[in-house]
Amino acid sequence: MRSLWDDREAEACGSELELRVYSSRLLGRDKSLVLHGGGNTSVKIAETNLFGEEEEILYVKGSGWDLETIAAAGFAPVRLDHLKKLAQLPALPDTEMVNQLVTHQTRAAAPLPSVEAILHAILPYSYVDHTHADAIVSITNTADGEARIREIYGDDVVVIPYVMPGFDLARLCAGRFAAEAGPKTIGMVLLNHGIFSFGQSAKESYQRMIALVGRAEEYLRRRGAWEVALPAAPAAHSVELAREQAKLRADISGAAGFPMIVARHADGRSLSFARRSDAGTIARQGPATPDHVIRTKRLPMLGRDAAAYTEEYKKYFQIHEPQAKERKTMLDAAPRVVLDGELGLCAAGRSAQDAAIVADIYHHTIDIILRATALGGYRALPAKDVFDVEYWDLEQAKLRKGGKPAAFAGEVALVTGAASGIGKACVEALLARGAAVAALDLSEQVATMKSGANFFGLRCDLTSEEHFRRALAQAVEKFGGLDMLVLNAGIFPGGCRIEALKTEEWQKVMRINLDANLMLMRECHPFLKLAPRGGRVVVIGSKNVPAPGPGAAAYSASKAALNQLARVAALEWGADNIRINSLHPNAVFDTGLWTPEVLAARAKHYGLTVDEYKKNNVLKTEVTSKDVAELAAEMCGPLFAKTTGAWLPVDGGNDRVI
């Protein structure tokens, strides 16, 4: 542990709430303390209400906010006196607890207060910090975890046995703290859950957290259980292995009932852990903390038998659901974590971001399991306790807040010629519909043109089969498979009549516009065949297919041949549930090819203004890259679910095409 506190930064904070934001972000920056929305913090502030009365307000982290990026608006202000009264009740149902928290906020637009707000309220300190520190959980998730915690801290912390978060935990902590806290007490350890620190200032509470967790890390280090070495495990990367991953994704998506992103992590540590001879024992105890279950499920899947995992999950539900206070509806039975000796760690989610969160949590879980094992044996909570959190209405509400998934959530698209023009617009249209997008282009700009977990840009020379196979394997490793393919890359050489057309120029155009696309279709077919909702291909053709013009023989012939190839593919691939359709744009001027100078020159050639030239079609409308891209994306959606082998112009109406 290393304190990140900076007195100069703290002095720039203009209020107690700003200091609370500052120290919360310091905690959130350390992933060994807080992962993806976990942990919570609070501060008690005296404020004057509308009647001129002073009252104490608890500002506690709001549900859905992440400590790493939290702002003042992320803290929910709740009247402290009311929270203390709630803590004295003999019982309080979850739904009524939430109602009481919400109805006693002082700001209507504030987020839902943390379910641990009552626990924060009863601790007699201005600042309270709560994390799920890896080091603490590594120690408590052992057979003698409580004894070890007492050995490390003595009277410096109050030790709380595991109780499900919420009102019951607050009541237990209030009783234990009142009975056991002394002058030296600076924290509280919740077994199998995490650690609290507190103080009268933001700095005091934060630095106590760092010091307490640091003592746990030092304890692990002294016992050889901090940096647990694993044998080297070299990873393999190939299109063939990518196909195995895509099949796994298809099986997981089938078990879930919707498409899933399945990202492969083949780093040495993940592979080595997956290959351990005792993986079936140490990895199948349960999550590091029950909070993780809504992201990772209770257990990872070992190997690739999704059907067996699904049956096991159903039995888990059937055993524990009858013991619940209210009836539960079973969630999907698909795994979120897969450990496989060949693939390594695979993380599944409804989006690439979700899959990344799963992987991040499980990478920390691996460290926790290995450290606990080195201490004598990892032991998670019983399945019933984990089930109670997984099916806890308050936790499920967090998942429901996301609303209806985007149209292409969990699906993967590959776009060629993606760094500019129509290709770039296709990337944006697909991302906007929730797809994960692998973007290929010869330009290096493709790698950085977008950010976010759902985007993966790769420089790739599509005339090289080796280049493309490597890029395809990387894309599948990143997202798990392929659902949609947009064939956009191509070149349009300068005007040249047939009698002056050189063989080399003809062959160059054919190699890029036709041969490369044949290779792409062939290599992508096995992956498209595994798409959970069926594969989709959109070919970006040209007006020159139905209506060629003079001086463009190579371009027109290559696009016409590509379109004919697409028609044959539609015939052959229909049995594989793959549909393929073509768009024929014309006069799309918002691309790198059309500079203002070129546009002005072409307009002048036809005796038109630039605006007239852009709209020189039947509908007198301008056709943009976005127009083409939006239709390309729709062709991959449900509106075109029963269409294959189609040609569709996007040209504002061209008299020769019509």
Q: Largest sheet, if any?
A: 7 strands, mixed
CATH fold-level assignment of the largest domain: L-fuculose-1-phosphate Aldolase
> Percent range for helical residues?
40-55%
Please give the domain count. Answer: 4
Q: From the coordinates shown, what is the CATH architecture of the largest domain?
A: 3-Layer(aba) Sandwich
For the termini, the CA-CA separation is: 71 Å
Query: How big a fraction of the residues is strand?
Result: 5-15%
Quickly give the structural class: alpha/beta
Strand order of the largest sheet: 3-2-1-4-7-6-5
User: What's the number of helices?
Assistant: 24
Structural Rg: 30 Å
CATH class of the largest domain: Alpha Beta
Judging from the principal axes of the Cα atoms, what is the shape? Answer: elongated
CATH superfamily of the largest domain: Class II aldolase/adducin N-terminal domain
Number of strands: 18
Low-confidence stretches: none
Q: What average pLDDT do the residues reach? A: 94
Describe the structure.
- By secondary structure, this protein is an alpha/beta fold.
- It folds into four domains: 7-222, Class II aldolase/adducin N-terminal domain (L-fuculose-1-phosphate Aldolase); 239-400, L-fuculose-1-phosphate Aldolase, CATH 3.40.225; 412-588 and 624-650, NAD(P)-binding Rossmann-like Domain (Rossmann fold), CATH 3.40.50.720; 593-622.
- The chain contains 24 helices and 18 strands.
- It has a seven-stranded mixed β-sheet, with helices on both faces. A seven-stranded parallel β-sheet has the order 14-13-12-15-16-17-18, with helices on both faces. It has a four-stranded mixed β-sheet with strand order 8-11-10-9.
- Helix 20 links the parallel strand 15 (484-487) and strand 16.
- Helix 6 (134-140) packs across helix 15, helix 10 (239-256) runs parallel beside helix 19 and helix 19 runs parallel beside helix 20.
- The longest helix has 26 residues, at 503-528.
